[in-house]
Structures are given as C-alpha cells and as structure tokens.
Queue: 4 jobs
Job 1
Amino acid sequence: MVSYNEKILLMVMPFWSPLIPPQGLACLKSFLRQHDYTNITIIDANTEAQLFSMSTRYLNRLSAVIPDSKKGNFLMIGYDVLMNHLMAHLHCNDQAEYHDAVKIIVSRNFFCPISDVDIGLLSLEVERFYSSLKEYLLRVIESQKPRVVGLSVYSLTLAPSLFACKLIKEIFPGITTVMGGGIFADHLHVHSLDFEKFLAKAPYVDKVITGEGEVTFLKLLTGELPKEKRFFCLKDVGNSVADMASLALADYSDMDMHRYLYVPTYASRGCPFHCSFCSESMYWGTYRRKKTGRIVDDLDALRNTHRTSAFFFTDSLMNPIIDEVAEEIIHRKLTVYWDVYLRADARIADAQNCARYRQAGLYRARIGVESASQRVLDTMHKDVSVEEIKGTITSLAGAGIKVTTFWVIGHPGETEDDFQASLALLDECADDIYEANPHPFYFFSAGQSDSESWMKERNVDFVYPPKVADALLMHTLTTSNNPTREEMFNRLCRFQERCLQKGIPNPYSLPDIIMADNRWKKLHNNSVPPLRAVTRG
C-alpha cells in the first residue's frame, strides 16, 4: 500500500509529439486527488529540448541515406525505425548482432541498403540519447524522491520507458515502477504473441496496467490488488471504470502549457464503431460520453484556466455528439476553436451542418478516409460510401474548416485497382484537403477488431528474423496475401508522390504548418484563422 502523502511521479518519455500535454496522466492525477492522493507530479520529458532534439538529428541522418523514391511518409516510417533502433540498442547481445539488426530494420522498412558508416552514425545518436536520458532521469528522481513512478507508454516511447524503469530499479530499488498506456492496446496486448515474453524480459517493470487505468491504479496504490501479480486489467477490478459524470477536470498544473499548441479535452471514451484495423473499441470497451453541458463546461473552465481558445478533442470520434456540442457552444456564445476526429457520414457531408460547426468554432476535422475503394471500405467495416466521403471533405472545406485526411495503404486484399481509386479521389479533392497523412497497414496479433480473424484466416509472416524480433521484445507481423509488404510500401511512396504533385502537404514542423495554412487561405477565402493566430488568441 502507498500512503496518501507519499510521492507519486507520472511521466511520459520521448518520443511523443508535444502537440498536446499528456491528457491521460492529467486525468489520472485529478482522479487520484479526488481519492486523497495529493502528492503527485506529472513530467513530460518530450518538452526537454536536449532529449527531443535527438529524434530530429537521427531522422535527418536517416533521411540523407534514403532515396527520395523510397521515403514515402518518411517521418512515420522513420519513427518506426527509430523506435526499433532504440529497442535493439537495449537488448542486442553484442555489437555484431546490434549492427546487423539495425541494417535489417532499415532495409525492411525502406527497402534499400544502408552502409556500415551510416549505421555507425545513427547508432552514435542513439548512444548519446541514452546518455542524456540517464542524466536527466537521475536528476528527476533525486529531486522528486517518488515512492511510485508511473509511465504512460506508446510504441514510440517504449524503449526509453524500459530504459527508465531499468535504471530506476538498479539505483532506487525501493521505487515501484508501473506501466500503462496505448502500447498494451495493440503491440503488447495481453493476448498478443509477445506479452508474456515482455514480462519475462522486463523484470524491472513491477506492475503493468492494461486498459482504462484510473480505478485499477487507485486499487494498486491502496493495496487492494494481489501483491504477487504483475499485470492487471479491468477484470481484476470487477470491470469497474471511472464514472464520467464525477470525474474532475484534467489537472495540467505541473506543465508549462505554452509549450503545447492545444489544450486537450474529451467528451467520450471508446468508439461505437468497429473498423477492422482499429483498437479503440477493444481498448475502452463500451462507448461512454459526458453530458453536453459538462462537455462545454470543461471547455469554458480550461479556457479560463489556461487563457487559450485552442482545444483538441481527443475522442476517437465526435460524430455522436458534435451537433449537441456545437449548439451548446453557440448558445453560450463561447469563442473557442476545436480540433476533432470525425467520421465521414451523411450528416457531416451536409453543407448547412458544416456551416453550423464552423460557427461554433470547429477549426480542424481529422477524417479517416482510409480508402476510396468501396470494396476495401466494406472489408474494413467502415459503413460509409465513397460519395459520403467526398461530400464530407467538400462540405467541411466549403465552410473553411481544415480537412486532414488519414489513409490506410495496403489493407489486406487491397488490389492495384483499389489503390488507384484512392489516388483518383486524392486528385479530385486535392484543393479541399488541408493535409493527407497515409499510413501503411499495421497488423497486430491481438487488439484490433479483426486481429483474431486475420490470425486464423490469413498467412501470417514475421517481418524480422527471430534474433531481431527477440531484441525488439515483440514481433512485427505482415500477411503474405496481397499486397505484399514491399508492394504496400511502394504504394505508400506513390501516394506521397501524388500528394507532392498536387501540392497537398503533410505538415509536422511549425514552418510546415505555416506553409500549409498559407495554402489553405489561398484556396478558401473563408478559411479558419492560421494556427498561430488561434494559439495566441
């Protein structure tokens, strides 16, 4: 049991884009404070320039050795390579094995060779990063003196999180280390091929919490969970989840909010849909939402507390409640700008509805287009038509709202004709797309809506040989059915090339965002303000 006055430190390791502060940890802190745990600090290591800048240096070095024709969505694939390189550094048995692992990791993501010299330069960046991370962690732990360290972990933060737990247990063995977060929704789902291996190879991680974490973490602190058990899920707490109506406002008081572009908020948890490749409905369980008045109360409170008008709704989808939220914001005459994930459907495709959303401050809509082949959309269980997708993009853009589109390239069974249909839609809607972000199809052995059927019905291959997969603590999977992994990545490169031809950006850095905003303003005279104006508002 952890007493109420003992220090609890909640952290996120690099490399997670500091677009928003870690909302999950802020919600956890406010929940624990409601239950008398008040000595809690949140630290986002992604705001440490010395640490985060390593990823920029690494990716710049990597970009220099990858031919332009092979880069595709370079930052997305580049971060996958970086994640795996960081893992290999921690777990390879000797230098030769490490060198060979990095060579294989690069070649099986970008399908091109890399020289020994370039591997050495990339590895040097990784070595420097871990040296800096060690110094940083020691300073933090010695100054905070926590009893418990809880880490929110995602695929891109896994290796630094493991490094942190191992260092803490070696130097401060009395500290309890706890992991939770999105990594346990897919890569390391409790029913995945690799979860048990992960537990065995990471004994320095004392406890693992899977799924929604507030109630489970609280019961861990109060000593209500079995001491001998290492991982816990909702079943261990009688499927008890946090009451949405009684949850306090997320507590961001430990963070310098000027370092982030948006203040995050949420209206719901879970997703009422079950797209084949998605883990949201599996992770959160039954879809739950706050009452409309409470949603807008939270917006108003965050606006007054943090002196900003720029918000990011982290909900899987806002479709079920967007009309009510928009009406309430208009009724209260709040001046807010909100960025959301939406699903293409007939209601969002209605131009009058989009004009109303814009009046309420809808600033950016992130749409999961995925594919413009009706056959593939049906296979994905998207329950949407290509015409509804077109109408959604056109109507949102017509209201001046930024339209970000996400695409899944290489879904199992996707043919060249299916891919050409996506390129045709990209051409047709180019001027109405603020950003196009293509993803290669990611396949996990558990966690996605269709993981189980894919494992049973399709020929499953391992991307990396056993020694490399062992060093990465988890397998990367692909299906041997069409398209092959190489063809999928070839299509990703062709998709990105078409975006360049059409002038559709995929901005990551602030200069890229400024350029994208300028393009949007030229295309749409009624466009929402540029991001700089919104965040300063």
Job 2
Amino acid sequence: MRSLGAGSGVVTLVEESSFAISDRTGDIIPGGAHGLFVLDTRILSRWELRVNGARTELLAAVSENPFSAVFVSRARPGIGLSDSTLLVRRSRYVGRGMREDLRVQNFGEEPAFCTIELFTGADFADLFTVKDGRAEDPDGDRSSTTVEGRISFEYRRGGVSRGTRIDFGGGVSASGELARFDVVVPPAGEWSTCCQVSPVIEGKLIEPRYRCGERVEQAAPVERLARWREQAPFVESDHKGLREVVARSVEDLGALRLSDPEHPERSVVAAGAPWFMTVFGRDSLLTAWMALMLDPVLALGVLQTLARFQGSKIDPRSEEEPGRILHEMRFGEASSLALGGGSIYYGTADATPLFVIVLGELRRWGLSTEKVDELLPNADRALAWIERFGDVDGDGYVEYHRATDRGLVNQGWKDSWDAMRYADGTIARAPIALCEVQGYVYGAYLARAHFAFEMGDEGTYERYRAKAIALKESFNRDFWLEDRGYFAMGLDAHKKPIDALASNMGHCLWTGIVDDDKAASVAAHLSSPEMFNGWGVRTLASSMHGYNPISYHCGSVWPHDTAIAVAGLTRYGFVEEAHRLTLGLLDAAMAESGRLPELFSGVDRMDVCVPVGYPTSCSPQAWAAGSSLLLLRSILRLDPWVPHGKTWLAPVLPPTMRRLKVSNIPLAGGRVTVSVEDGHTTVDGVPPGLEVLMEPRKPASAV
C-alpha cells in the first residue's frame, strides 16, 4: 500500500484506456482537468461528495495498484465541537468505467444522522480539449434523466452518441444531477453503499471491469496485474533507489498495457497517463525494447499490433504510406472498443525503422522464432518505405516533411514546433534528416542483414550489410561537426547541418552508427555541465540560443532520452559517464516517490535541490517507466544473441553500489538470476545450449 500524500494535488488512476483524475479527497471537480475518461472522452466531469452539506477533511489517500485508491477523510465537526466522530472511506476502482464503495463509520456514542450527497456531471469533452485547458462544453446535444436510483447522461453530435449511466445503491434519492442519502449511522456502527459508473457507446452499455455486488479480488485487472507481478524480475541491492524505482516501473508498465478485444492474447503498451492512453508507434516500440528484461512477449504484441495497422496506401490526410508504421492511434468518437475503431495518424519518421530494430532484438532474445519470422514480411515492407518514401530525394537519408498543414511540423521524438534549432536559436525548416533517425535506419539494416544471415540468404545479407556500411560512412562525414566535436541534430532542406548541441546524438551511440574515433567526444559532451543538469541530459544544451529549461523539447530532461544515452555510452565503453547519468536519474526518481515522470525541467541541480516538474508531464508514462529497466540492463551489460548460442554479460556497478542481484530475467525460454557482489559475478538458471561470455560485446559492426 502506497501513500498518495495529503493536501493539494491530483490522483491519477489508470487501467487500459480508462483513467480518472481527482483531487486527493477523491472529488472530481468541474472546470479543470479532473474527470473519468474512457476512450479519450470525459464521461464524468463532476463527482463531489458532501457530508452534512460540507466537504470532508482529508486524512489519507493510499493505493496498492495503479487502478484503485482509497480516500480516507472525516466529516467536519459540528458547530462548537473540536472533533468529528464520522470517518469516511471512498474505495475507487477504475476500468472501462468506475466503481466507488462509500463507507461511513460512526465512532461516537450516539446515533449520527447524516445527509450524504454526490454531485455528478458529464460534459463528454474530448481529451485534448481538457488537456489544453479549454473547458468549454463541446458542440452537440446533452441531456440527463433520473429514474429508480439511476442518473443517466447522454450526448449526441451528428451520428455520434455517448452516454454515462450511474447506478446507486439502495436508499438513494436522485434528482437532476444530485444523488442523496439520508441515513442514521448507529454508534460504533457503519453505513455503506456502492456506486457504479458505466460508459455507453453508440447506445451500447459497456460493463465496467469492477461491478457492484462482485468481489473486487476477482476482477480482471486485479488478476492480470497479479500475473504480471509474478513474472517480473526482482531486484535486490544495497542501492535502495534502484530497487524501488524498478519495482515502481513494473507496476506502471503493468497499468499502461492495452489489450485488443479482437486479439485478446496480445498486449501493447500505451504511451502514458493521463493524456496518451493509446498506441503510439515510437513510444510503444521503444518501451517494449526497454522492457525486454521484464517481458519479451510485450514486444511481440506491440509488433503484431503495429503490423496489423501498417500503412497500405497513400493518404495525405493521415500521412499513411505503404509500409509506414503508425505514429498515433486515437479513439475519440470511435464506435468500437477494439483498437481498430480509432483513427490513425502516420506522421513520424522513426517508428518504421524502430519496428525493424525491435523485431531484430526479439530474434536476438530467442523469443518464439516462428512468430517473429512471421513478421519478417512486415519488416521488408518497412524497409521498402525507408527507401522509397522515407528517402524521397535519394541521398541515402530518411527525411520528414508533413504532407499537409494539418500534420506535425516535426516528426521525430522531439515533435514540438520549435524543437529543431540551430546553435543561434533559429528554427530549422523541413524537410529534415534527423541524426537519430539515421541511426535507427542503420540499426534496421543490420537487423535485416542478421535475419538473412541466419536464414542462409546471402544476397539479402550482402545487400543490407552494404547499405549499413555506406550509411555509417556518409553519416559520420555529413553530420559530424569537426570544429565542435559533436554531431548535428540533423540536416535541413539544403543539407546544411542543424548545429545545435543536443541530446539526439545519444541515440546514435545506442545504435552503433558512431565511428569509434568520435565516440569519446560525444560522451564528453553528453556528460558535460551544459548538457547534464545533475539529474539527466538536457534536450538542448544550456549554452545554445533558444535554451529554455522549462520548455517541452528545448532544454528539458526526458528520462528515456537519458537512459538511451546511458545505453549508448555503455555500448562504447564509457562506463564512468554512464554511471553518472544513471545515478542522477535514480536520484530524480527517488525525489518523485520512485516514479520517473515523462519529463522535467532542465534547471540545474545546483540551483534547485529537487527536480523541477513540467506542468502537463504524463505520470505514469511508458518510456519513462521503461527507463529504469534499461538502466538496469546497462549496469549488467547484458546483450543476448540466442540464435548464436551466446549471451554477453559484464556487470559494472556504479560507485555507490556494492551488491546487486536480479532474479527472474526471461531469456531463451528460461529464467536467469545474475548476482554481483564486490566485483564478483555469478549466473544461475542459464538455459542449456546458451554460453555466457563474461565480457562486453563490442559495438555492432556491419562487417
């Protein structure tokens, strides 16, 4: 059970594509970002409790999983009294709707008469209307009805219909949007009731995961999370932060999983709560890769789902192109709970090569060879997109340029409008070839070459090997800024380097596209005071014009970005620099109760002794949660290549850590335990036929 603190602030509960945002008393207050959301629509915009006409006084808010919480408060004392005898407990469970168990205990010596009121409301606002702070009512017709202890809300606009049904327990008097209970609570006794909130989509009532009258312990989310916890790696260490952060990440990733009713055996991961509880190509792929130590099957589900919606035609409105992997799937006014019921936007340059990289990683981890090989045609279509649509001008680099004025201006992971800047602060214009995207393409070529090698397809192997060699050579020539000792963020429409010092090149280290003679300079820049703020790597160096530590992409710190830089530094042997960044991120997480947010400010740790937050940062967020798992893998320097019967393992602990044990690592169908103490490593549970090499694997080469 984890305390959610007291005082002001918000509580976010999430289960698949449903989430609830409230204050810490449990109230959903209208006029802001609070609400119960299902499929990107706010189906409950008000849920306020009053006892004897007044708000209750918060005592505690606690949670033992991401989709439920208990809010404990007391009724305000009567006139002339210093204490109250009434304890109020609200137990809330979120999943395809909401259930709330309301319980009032009387610790007094006399019966207590109570008027208990629940003020309700549903505005059916779109998720992004709420996120942007535009709380005006959406267009359309709304109505409410009350009958037999039930309040119903309905919304219609054109052919779209949404509704909310709220069922209350016995003894309720419902009128308009108010539910009222007049009760007498006996001395040393209690009163309780159950309220159930159900969404209605196109006239069809959706049964919540938690229903009144049923045991909470038997609900699907509880059982699903229990199975997830059982399979998770377990960390023991004298570094308290690492242990707690990994455990919290496991919980968050479990909550962010989505399932498709059309393919219930597949799980994918949503980008983050509360604003991005949907499938994102880039986010889902990177998170699945980071989480391979937790559950390789998750990566398979992500790949299968993205393959299902891989582009097949040219459509400028959605930027769909044959072979392209989607950027974002949205539900909004979709008529189905199935993933396919949402609208899809394809405008991203990086998801397509990342698809091939993650497929190659699954092959290396030895997961379900047949299922992985079934996705190889999708990888080939992705590579065809890279060569035809990604590289329109034929210069060997993948560029992006939106198809219409409705698309994203920038289509890398730094996709805000002002993210791509020169050192003088001028904003670069598309088409742009991002440095990290070229690294992803390099990794995709290598992955496909390795597939071909294992299958004995020498022609395909030589083709992609040659493409990787050529790309690496041209990249290190055209993107390298010799006078500054770092790589440009990208090349602009005129092939001019976008010369700002930025974090993008950390991704290039991870993919192995950086020449060895340039890696030391890149490592020095990433760990320098102008880039490393004490907690993580800034997206843009503090020495650059346009640097803003409280911006989205121009000086903020993103944990996943730093973790990928750690993986890259580790890959090239810069362990000391990797440890500095690792310990900074772990400290940041511990300052946030063990959870890394989507991003935080780039303000220096020397100036403010805690990470400075970012207002609309998602928490939990998928690749932030995955970051701790990537840090753990980087510490272990774990690099499997199961088809070749080998796994590289060469742990080096950070200076503040003497002992580390990681149990239950899924590898080649087995469960492996790695123990490190005072520089000595032992490995148990290695599957037969797999050789463990106690040395780091050198950066992958195309040769």
Job 3
Amino acid sequence: MPTFLRNTGGAVLRPASPFTLNALNAGCLCALAAALPALAQSTPPAALPPVVITGNPLGSDSLATPASVLTGPGLVLRRGSSLGETLSGLPGVSSSYFGPNANRPVIRGQDGERIRVLGNGGATLDASALSFDHAVPIEPLVVERLEVLRGPAALLYGGSAIGGVVNAIDNRIPKSALQGHAGALELRGGGAARARSAGALIEAGNGASGPGGRGFVLHADAFKRRTEDLRVPDFDRPVEGGGSERRDRIVNSASDAEGGALGGSMVWGQGYLGASVDTYRNDYGIVAEEDVLIRMQRDKFALAGEWRELGGAIRTVRARLQSTDYEHEEVEGTGEVGTTFSNKGEDGRIELEHAPLGGLKGVFGLQGERAKFEALGEEAFVPNTETRQWALFVHEELALAGASRLSFGARVERSRIESSGDADPSEPKFGDAQDRRFTATSAALGGVWDLAASWGSGWQATGNLAYTERAPASYELYANGVHLATSAFERGNADLDLERGGNLDVALEWKSGAHRLRAGAFVSRFSNYIALLRSSEADFVSDEGDSFPVYAFEGVKARLQGIELEGAWRAIDAEGSLDLEAQLDALRADNRSTGEPLPRIAPLRLRLGAAYSLAGWTLRGDVVRAQRQSRVPADDERTPAYTLLNLAVSKRLTVGMSDALLFVRLDNATDELAFNAGSIATVRELAPLPGRSLSAGLRVSF
C-alpha cells in the first residue's frame, strides 16, 4: 500500500510517489504537442446548433419541458471541480454539496436516484446516488456542453429520471466530418481550493468539413486537476466528543484527478459510426472523516452511430452501446482499504425515427441496462446486487398552426433487482438472497403554443403534464447497516412498491434579440414517494461502541411545488453593451403523510447580475441572495440566509485561426460565511461554502 502525503490542514492528498501520466493520457498529450504547429492552418469544428439535444430527438426549436444549456464561454466561466458546483445556481438547480469533491446536482429538490446523470445520453453506472460522499466520475474540464432538463424526463431516459436529467456532452465520438486539425487547451488556477488544472483536446480528420462531408475523424483529450483543502471564512467546526475548534479550511477536502479519452468515427453525409475509450481517476478526501481517502477509478468503452435519410418507413436510426467498469476504495489513514465499492455493467439504446404521418413526427426505441454492484468491507451497508432493466419508449409530435405543436410520450420499463444476501452466513447482516421485479409505466402530454398572433412576436406558452413511475433502487430495498456518510443506521424495505407521481409544469416565455423573459410554475404530487425517514426518537443501534439513529426507507405521500423566473434586458446596445439579468426560484416540499417538510430543500434564491461588454472585454457582477431555510423536518436544523458577491472580467482574443478567452474571477468578494441547505445535516456544519477567492484561466481554441 502506498503512503500518503498530507497538506497543512491534515487532508490526504496523493500517493507519495511522483505523478505519472498513464499511457492513455500520455498518448493524448503527445498527439496534442505533435499537432500544435499545424493547428493555425486547420479548420475549426462547427459550432453546436442553438438547440437542446437532450430529450429532443426530433430537433425541435423549443421544448415543453424546461431546460438549461451551458456551452462556449458561458460554460468556461462557470466550470467548477464537479458537476454540482458547475450547475448550482441555474434555475431550479442546487447541489448536495458533501464538500467540494462529492457534489451531485439537485433539481427542484430531487436528488439521488430521481436525477439521471448521463454522459452523451448514456448511463454513468457509478455509486454517486448511493451515498452523498461518492463523487460523479465526470470531469467538467473536458465537457463541451451541459444540458439540464427540469421535471420528469423518464420517457426517454428511464424511471430514475423522474426529477430531471443532467447530460454531459463531449465529442469523444465525433459526429461530423473535419478537414485538417482542430483543438483546444484550457489552463485554470487559483480559487478557494488553490486549484491547478489543465485540459487539452485534439481532433484530426481527412474529410471535407460541413454538411455532407465524409471521412475519418480522430479525437484525443486529457486532463489533470489538483486541489488543496478548501478555504472558507472562519467558522466553528464541531469536534468529536463535543465542543468546536476555529477553522478557516474544510478538513480533508483536497483532491487529485486525472483522465482522458481516445475516440474516432467514420463520418459520411447521412451519418456516422464511431467508438471511444476513456478513463477517469480521482483521489479525494471525505470531509466527514479526517483521515479517509476515496480512491476512485472508472473506465468506459462506448460505440455510437447514426444513419439518417434512409427513406421508407424508418428515416433515421440512432444507437449507443457502452460498457463501464467503476470501482472506488475507501482508504484509512493507515493506508488500509476499509471498504471497496464497484459497479460494472452495460447499457444501450436504439432510437428509430419514423416517416412523417401527416403532421405527426416521432421516434420509438428500446433501452437496456445491466449493473452488477458489489460492496466489500466492514462499512458495507448494502449487499451485492444485480439490476437489469429493459424499456420500450415512444415520443411523438404533432404540428399545429404556426410554430405550435403537441407532444406525447410513453414508456414501459421492466426491472429486476436481485440481492445476493449474506456473503458469509456465519455473519448475518442482509439475510437470504432476494429478488424483486417491477413494471413501471410513464406517460406525458405536452405542448408549445405560439402566441405571436395575439400577444406579439416572440411570445410562447409551454405546458407539460406527466405521470411517472420508478422502481425502487437496490439500496432502498436491501440496505441494512451503518452509513458513516450520514451518521445513521439505514434500513431498506424489500416490500417497497413503485414510486408514483404526477407533475404539471407551465411557463410563459418571450424572446426578442438579446431580451428574454421566462416565468414558470410547477407542482408534483406523489401517491408513493420513497423517503429515508427517522424511524423513532428512541430507536438507536450500537456499532463498535458508537450509537446511531435508525433511518428507514418508506413510501409516503409528498408534494413539491415551486416557481422559476428568469430574464435579461439589454439596457445599452451601442459601441458597448450592457445586459441586466435577474433570476428567482422558490420551492416548497412537503411530506404529506407526516405533515413535515421534506429534507435538504434549497431556500428561495434571487440572483441579480450585470455584464458590460466592449471591444472583446466583458466585466460581470452577480449578487446571489439565498433566504433562510426554516422549513426543515424535526431531525434537521435551519440554514441561515447569505448574500454572495461575485465579480469577473474576461477578454476574447482572435489571432489568425485561433480564438482565446482569458478570464479572472473574484468569488464571494465579501468573504461571507454561508452553508448549503441541500447538504445533509451531519456534514453541513463541517463544510461551509467557499470563502473569498481569486482565480484565473485561459482557453485557446485552434
């Protein structure tokens, strides 16, 4: 076992041996270095169209389901060290925030299994939904586009998309032809965690670029990111045995991540066929335990293709198949591995777009997934399980007058979730092997109505009505043990039924040039909502001398309702431009069976921003106000209000065929002490949000 170095705050950082790039990363960087001299003569890749890809198989200009897209300079300026950090603050989106490393997106109060995190439309097959201290193995530094669908998206992506979808899109399997070479290099440094990170990609093709081009395209990318313990405003950190100590850093929050990918495609005028292999490594500290390191690795192989303009009844075929091997070890301060989690499996989907039937267009398809999960070690609180899922889905759109249209979708999903039971009968914990089977059915009806004739140009209304069902996750059925991340004994319920709920989402939108406005409201009612609840005030379990409260998974009635407002106005549009922005979201979530609020709900949030641009320079300021979260269940605590001031300046440059973006950010300029209401109570007081920090970066695209 390797020994580990520590930083001044006591966090486990990395193996004492020098960092060595694996063969894949080395190959990626060598390819980049070899191609740099020719990049100035290369044709850059075509820009992504301004259309939401996720949940939009027919390429419609707008969706009935609310969505947000981050790409280009907007994504570069928002990038964090995790998906949760990058996306938090978008309308309706917060994060679970188990410190800066394990930080999963939360959409409209929904997290865990109810949020489907995808990579290029495929499953991540990790362990992040199982526990708050498990990170998502996706590196934002090499992602080219992030899309968030708020509300039910189960029809195309599975029952676990009942709360929303996050899709991280890269170009590791190229979809369009390229002539010559293209690439990008991004360097970032500073911030509250003193990050040092670099990412690079290179693509090369031998065909004509643009529509109808054909040829072979190669892709290679690599990244490296290292952070130290996160600096925060001075706070009183609780210590074991009672009392507190004054700290200005989150203990054991450093990280060391690296990875990369190789991919290639054969592209022709009507489609493409390609493959990729990628790897991800991340060693990071667990903030709830001062001397524990998670050593994560994930390898993936993917095949994808599309064939358009086939003629006949089927016009387009799209398919994706991938195999994932995920594992992480929880390493004690002595270097001993305490618990190992692994998730290995395959997933695939095929979509077929049929020929128009009058004004009706649509796709139907088949999706399958198999995952074999294992937890080995003293702290394993779930048994080894195998989950198989198969589903049929359909999505149809009917054109109406003008730009109006109706959409309909349905999905039938069959799941089988098997528990291996006790690995050693002499040490009973999970009981005998068990097998549960579920059939979940979901349907949605939506519409986009063009209001230009009655309201004026740029106005439209959207609405979506959905009924969704979700099969319980393996840990919701079979967990039985102490979960140190939540400081609780978690008990599954093998008799759980399907999670069932209905959702209504409506919005009014207006767009005119740089001006835009969107006002939306939603309500979700669940007749059976699977929640982890405190079983009894007097119910405790002892484990190795410590006492833990018992929490059990139960089906309850629940309601979540909220509003989302966002808008932008170009106040000045002359030699320079001044854009004013505002955003507000509010959510109320109730356990209707107990009368208590649901846990970990973001409070009302307001953001006001202004950006002035002139001659390639942009100066931006944002004020973010989060109200006090007082609506919490009895076993949680209120979260104080906070106000954050963030400033940034950026400069866009063009030199020959190269574009560059240089930026400097000052986050939390007033060094305000703030806590995330979406964190679990046992970690919230250990991990405040980042303090005042200065960071800078440069992205060059060739």
Job 4
Amino acid sequence: MYNNIFQFLNSAGTCDVNQAGQLFSLESTPSLLLYSYVPAVIIALSLVLFIYFKDRKNLISRALVLFTFFYSFWVLNILLQWISVPNKLILMAWQMTAFFEVGLCLSALHLFVAFYTKEHITKRLKFALVFITLVMVVLTPTYLNISSYDFESCEGILGYVWYFIYAFELILPFSILIAGFIKSKNPKYTERKKEIRIFSVALFICLLVFSISNLVGEYYQYYSLNLFGPLGLLAFVGFVTYLILNFKLFNIRIFSTQILVIFLNLAIVSLLLINNLVAIHLITVFTFVLAVFFGYLLIMSVKKEIEQKENLERLRLKLEESNINLETANEKLKGLDKLKTEFLSLASHQLRSPLTAIKGYASMVKDGDFGEVAPKAKEAVERIFESSQNLTIIVEDLLNVSKIESGGMKYEKANFDMSEIVKTTAEDLSIMAAKKNIKLSYSADSGNHNVNGDKEKLRQVVLNFIDNSIKYTKEGTIEVKLENKNDKVLVSVKDTGMGVSPEIMATLFQKFARGEGQKMNTGGSGLGLYLAKEIVDAHKGRVWVESPGMGLGSTFFIELDAVN
C-alpha cells in the first residue's frame, strides 16, 4: 500500500535530460498558465487577506481565508507539476494533489455553512471534516492515490481513491446550490435571502468550473484543460465583490472594486504573453463576458448609491426645514409660556385683593358684625365665605406655580423640628375630618425629626396631603405619622379613601392631574400635588404615593434629610 514511498525514493533523474541540474523550467509551460493561475491566486489572496485583516473575528472572513488558501496551495501544487524538472518533485506534487483538492472542497463546504448561519459549525460536522482530512493524509503516499509514475510523460497515474474524489467534486457544487436556495426560504434568513442565494451561486460556479476542468482534462488525458479551473475562482471573487458593493459584506467596498479593476487589467495585459490564437480568443471572450457582467453590477451599484445619496440629501433638506420650523415654533411656545406665566402672576395678584375683601365682609356678616342675619341668609353667606376661601387657595396655587416656572419662588430655610408643623396641622384639620365622621390620628417616634428648610412651604405640603385625604375619604380613618428612618425624616399620610390606580399614580404629581378625585371634589385646582413635589424637590427630598388599588385607600409620603 505504501510502495509509492519507495517509488518516490527511487524516482531519480529528470523529466528532460537537457535540463539536468535544474529544479524548475518554464520552457514546456503552457502560456495559459500565466493567465489563469498566477492572476487568480494574486487577486484572490489580495482580497481575502485584506478582508481577514479588516475583521479577524468574523467567522465568514476566517472561513474565506481557509478556502482561498487551500485553492492557492492547489494552484501552486499544479504549477509545481508543470515547471518542476526532477522526477521526485513532480511525483510529490502529483501525490499532494488529492489532499489539496479534498481540502479545497471541505473548506468550501465549511465556508458555505459559516456564511448562511454566521455561527460556528456543529461538532458533528467539524468531526466529519477532520476525519476526512486525516483519511486523505493517510492515503496520500499510497498506490490508492497515485498508483504509479510514468517516466516518459512525467505524469502520475491516478489510483482508485480518485473515483471518490471526482464524484465528491461533482456532487458538492450542486449540493451547495440546492441547499443555498432551500436555506434562503427559511424565515430565519428572510432578510438575507438574496445574499445567501448569490453566494451559493458564486460557490457553485467556482467549484463547478474547477471540477469540470479536472474531470474533462483527466478523461481526455489533456491536462492543459486544468488551466481553466482557476477561472472559477476569479468569478467567485467577482461575486464576492458584488456582495461587498450591494450588501456591505465585510464593509470594504472601495478596496474590492479596486481588486476587480486590477483583475481586468491583468487579464488584458496577459494577452500579450500568449501566442496561441485560439487561447487568445477564449481569454478575450471570457474577459469580455466577465467585464460586461460585473461592469453592469458595478454601474447598478453606483446608480443605487447615487439615488440613496440624493434621497438622503432630500431628507436632510427636509429635516433642516423641519428643524427651522420646530425652532420657530419652540420660540413661539416659549414666548406664549412666558406670557402665560406673566398672566397667571398678574391675574393672581389682581384677584387677591377682591377675594380678601369678599372673604372679610362675608366673615363679618356671618359673625353678626352688621346686625342679626336671617338663618337662610346666614347659610348663603357661609357658602360665600367657604367658596371665597377655596378660591383664595386656588389663586395662591396659581401664584406659586407662576413663581416656580419663572424662577421667582424664594425659600427661607432654617433648621427646625418637623413635628412642629406636622402635629399642629394634623390637629387643626382634625375638626374638619370629624365633621365627615373621619377619625384623624397623629403619631411620632422618638427619633430625630430636625430638617433644614422653609417651614411655611413645607407646612403647605403637609396641609395639602392631609386636606386631600379628608376630601377624598368618605368615611374611615386617616393616620398621620412622623418617623426617622436611616437618617431620613419621613412623613406619611395614610387614609381609607378612594385609592389610586397604577395608571393615575404615574401622572398624579403633574400639573392639573387629578385622576378620579375630580368626581368627589370638583373645587380643586389640580395644582396642589404638583406644588408639593416642586417644593420638596427644592429641599432635595422626595414625595411619592402608594396604593393597593382603587377603593383601597392610599398613603402619601414626604422624605427629607435629617439634620442634627
């Protein structure tokens, strides 16, 4: 089985006695060799190596490098068969051909799988590829690979293993083509459908030209036909260039275009090195077809890019116009907002004086300062007094909002005990709660309740929370607590009222947000909670609400930093 090793050792002499002492000679080398082999290897390696160094971590680029290197080694091996002079070198090249051809096919299969999945190949496929490679390593020096060597023609006689190799070479291109079109229909690859199909066609053409040139050359014992094999690699390079241009594959569009132009130039220049008219005609036709095909693809790609740039330019102009309009509208809105704030401030100030007078005179009439008042008239005056009081609160809220928005809200901060305002406010409002049969309680722990802030502004926040609980609780209890938790002073107002839904909770502290509460109390402004949040935020604290849901009550919290 390993007789070929001894045949190799005994294969002394040279293929041509006139060239004794030389290793290589180009005298009997076909002129087409310089056209198909050398340019193919240079162009393919240039593109692939650039892709690899552009993105080494890319699985596809690594698989592409492996495939191209096997192709290049196969090409160099064939070159060695043509230009070598010593029989030992020629026989060695013939023996190595099987390994490189099988390696080329296996690397093509690996490249195809890596391209459409963009993932590492499965362990099962990796094992199969490694196993076949090892088998070829074992069979390379045996008579099953090269059964003998013809010293007259300087050619190896193929063994039985080549039947399997040629069958594999012929089946593989069609398998890749069919698999590519089937895989492209998978919903998983919908976005890459066209890309996968083009790549499958590219590999199909590359491998088919390679296989047919080998099969036909072996069948007719006319090995010059093998020289057309690398032309399939050039077609593959062209397709990869098209994918780079149209699908941004590897993101190297400019370089790939340069490679294609260089190839066409080399193809034209190489005609000067060929004397055979038939070969010149074949090369010219092939180059022309290739130039027309990929020239069309390049033109369409450039046209598409120009259209995209024109669309982007139109979009840019529209965006600039929209930005200008938005800026103008924004300036107008800022002006209107400023006018609104000024109007609220002015209106609030102007309403304060008449409201104070109405409230004062109504109080005096109610208390009998102007003489005895009939019961029905007294009831009406009491309603006037309550309404004026509510309106005064609304005007005060509007005035505070305008101050906050204009940056005019002033805070007179000092250290004080939070219990001073929480306890007194709870006691003051307990009478109002009792009128609605609501039990209002106050409790405090023994911790430090000192804070730094504006006492009157924070009193307004506490007042708002307790007052809201009274308004939106029909019956039950309200618990006001003052605690110290982790050096934070925490005020909580818990009621058994109407509760807050998660949707309303998200917007409860915004301006004019009242949620379902407006159904129970139509006299509010919807600004109380907004003002409470703004005041507490100015004290670097926070406010929030918790509620199990509608009808299950709620708890409002104020949290401030404790000071010693």
